[in-house]
Amino acid sequence: MERSLARLSGPPRVAVTSPVAALEVPVRGATVVHAAWPLTQPGIDVGVLVTERVTGRMRARMQVGPFPIVVCASIADVQQAIDAVNLPRAREQALAREVTHTARQYPHANVPATHLPRPREERTWARGTNVGVRVCVVGHGRVDLPGFDVVAGPDKGADVCVAVAGPNGWEAGDREILAECFAAIGRLVVTAPPPPGLDDWVVVARHGLPEAIAQACQRPPAVPLPPVPVSRVATARFRRRTLWEPIIVSVIVAVGLSRMLPVAVAAALAGVLYGVRRSRRQAKSPGRAWAENLVQG
Question: Which parts of the chain span the membrane according to its record (predicted)?
């Protein structure tokens, strides 16, 4: 607790970053922390994201916290964005989290747990963005969504993508379009059961679009897995040992034993060794050979 109080009573720790890399920007009266987006590094009081366009994934990250993240369009606006943050409130919440964590970690220390209500203006941490849920609509029709910020067509700045099916359901080429929308935004709501092969996180609007959109927003946006480089793809290659390998080993063993034993005895022992090695190689199961060769590359 003393360390937590020392960290929270010193200069504010600020991390400034762009969507692609951390930025070294001097901040008046603060300690700059080198951290890149999405700012998952501990020891940060305020995060600043410098970007001209805020996507739905960025807004979802800002809502998670645990510290406030503000957005500005250029580096020249960083200081103004930091000055607008309620730093005492942010540090009060950080101290409450530290006390609660200590109480759970040491239940016999009689540390009172502290619970602070979540701020109502949590979505407004992203300055200059709409406080409502932004929805983009694609597909074969229009929908009426009062209370939502609706944009037409696929838009990475949306929080949720709503795909409207036709009167006869989805057509042959709709599956690729739905997959692209889901990969671009990370949340997809469909008005009819989706074609087979789509992600399990796709939400079907069975009881109305507002309820389905709220259900989709309860999950973080899905992020597609990065492609695996071709150079790192391991292929199973069976090592085909020729007949000469056990023969050469047997000859070497026979020459070595002939210095201590009679030549006939050494040759007999080498022949026995050759038979044992050959029988063990033939008895090896294909599955084990496949696994060993895969590991060996």
Answer: 247-276
Give, as one character, the DSSP assignment of residue 221: P
Tens-place pLDDT, residues 106-139 = 888 777 766 655 554 444 333 333 347 889 898 8
Question: Which segments of the chain does DSSP mark as H helices, in order?
Answer: 2-9, 56-64, 78-83, 87-105, 174-185, 209-217, 244-257, 263-283, 286-296
Q: What is the pTM of this model?
A: 0.60
Contacts from 128-133 at CB under 8 Å and sequence distance 24+? 128/54, 128/71, 128/72, 128/73, 129/54, 129/59, 129/71, 133/159, 133/160, 133/213, 133/217
Sign of the torsion angle spanned by Cα atoms 78, 41, 160, 149: negative
Phi, psi of 62 (to 5 degrees): -65, -35
